[in-house]
Amino acid sequence: VGELMKYVWVNGKLIPEREAVIPILTHALHYGTSVFEGIRAYWSPESNNLYIFRARDHYIRFHNSAKIMGIKVGYGIDELVDATVELLKANEVRENVYIRPIAFVSASTVNLDIRDLETTTAIIAIPFGHYLEPKGVRAKVVSWLRVHNSMFPMKAKVGGIYVNSVIALLDAKISGFDEAILLNRDGYVAEGSGENVFIVKDGVLYTPPTYDSILEGITRDTVITIAKDLGLTVIEKRITREELYTADEVFFTGTAAEVTPVVNIDGRVIGNGQPGPITLKIRSYYMDLVHGKVSKYMSWLTPVY
Ligand code: PMP
After folding, report:
1. Which residue's CA is minimally distant from atom 13 of ligand 1?
2. What Pfam families is this protein classified in (predicted)?
3. Candidates 13, 135, 157, 228; catalytic one
């Protein structure tokens, strides 16, 4: 993760990053009252262009998160896509970046009724490399459970709910692992701290269903879509912990994580302990696609230049 860029977009304006500061009593800082997205844009040396991946889909989810949470965004989906293009152009971005749109309750007040409180919408871009080691990670199924759909709408990507991910990852890291896997209240696999989970068994892909307490990942959807091109079947079904241990391959998907092989879970070697062939095939196709090398999916890419 690199440093911030020259400009950030705040409430419709590009302003210098050092001027984009918030007061100490900001509601979202105290109560986690924000909705956000994580989007990637990839630099393609072949076409000398920067491509934002599935920008519209991310902003649709952003709008849905805001609607669920009762946070006003103030800008339409197309306006936000255009703002993102404008931001990347202003910063003359010619490298891979992570884009962080956020809408948060920016009023300085101690009041849990957010209905009439002021909100701020911002978009920030940062240079970004690998989030997880692409050669494979070791994961721990932590004892903290994923917040259940009945306790909070987990389809919404809300700031405050990320403390569940933070404490899970902390637990995994303290125990010497790279990433956490959280089970849901019923004991089935939910997701990683910031990724969806897939397993491969006898050539078939399995991933937890969206009605379980997971974020409906856009990378998850991308993988389900492209798996068909590779002649693979994907079944959305509940996955148990022992199915993780005995899988042929396991991988994480996420905007930041892309497609990351999981080679060890709770000290059990997955497959032969190396990234599996199906994981690698999907990863390679995904990386080609996001760089604009798969013509069929060019509609998922927003060129910046
Ligand atoms: N689950 C969680 C908890 C996440 O934070 C993310 C990252 N946004 C994902 C799954 C993957 O979602 P996406 O593929 O849309 O980035």
Report:
1. 217
2. Aminotran_4 (PF01063)
3. 157
- Rounded Cα gap, residues 275 and 54, in angstroms: 26
The strand pairing partners of 13, in sequence order, are 10
Ligand 1 touching residue 220 (CB < 6 A): yes
Question: Ligand 1 within 6 A of 132 CB?
Answer: no
SS (H, E, C) 28-80: HHHHCCEEECCEEEEEECCCCEEEEECHHHHHHHHHHHHHHHCCCCCCCHHHH
Q: Please, which residues have CB within 8 angstroms of residue 116's CB and are 6 or more apart in sequence? A: none
Q: How far apart are CA 172 and CA 282, in angstroms?
A: 26
CA 148 to centroid of chain Cα atoms: 19
Pick the closest to residue 241 from 138, 136, 137, 142 (CA basis): 142
Residue 44's Cβ-count burial label (10 Å; 0-12, 13-18, 19+) is middle
Query: Ligand 1 center to residue 173 CA distance, Å?
Result: 19
Q: How far apart are the first and last CA of the chain?
A: 24
Cα–Cα separations (whole angstroms), residue 3 to 6, 98, 127, 180: 10, 11, 7, 26
Ligand 1 centroid, distance to 256 Cα (angstroms): 8
Tens of each residue's pLDDT in the chain, 305 residues: 446 689 999 999 999 999 999 999 999 999 999 999 999 999 999 999 999 999 999 999 999 999 999 999 999 999 999 999 999 999 999 999 999 999 999 999 999 999 999 999 999 999 999 999 999 999 999 999 999 999 999 999 999 999 999 999 999 999 999 999 999 999 999 999 999 999 999 999 999 999 889 999 999 999 999 999 999 999 999 999 999 999 999 999 999 999 999 999 999 999 999 999 999 999 999 999 999 999 999 999 999 99
